[in-house]
Design brief:
It contains one helix and two strands; from the N terminus they run αββ. It has 88 residues and is an alpha+beta fold.
Amino acid sequence: MWHSNAYLIANRTALLELKEAIDVALKHEETRLGLMPSDGEGYDLFIKCVDDDFEWEELEMPYHDRECYMPDESEALPPNKTFEKYKL
């Protein structure tokens, strides 16, 4: 949801794994980290390091309520399309 806060709550081990994943993305441009929240529904966090001149305006917004936001799918770049090693 737009204008909402984001929260990251993790133990030391998980934070170190996230730190390592960020270090990998900084070195190799992208990485993937498997996560498992308390509900047992695992998901992957994809991390991409982009150049300073990355065109942020071209990136599709992550909103899901199409009544409030309808992306221009002919022009907007879905986040998963920025990854080269992880074709989604």
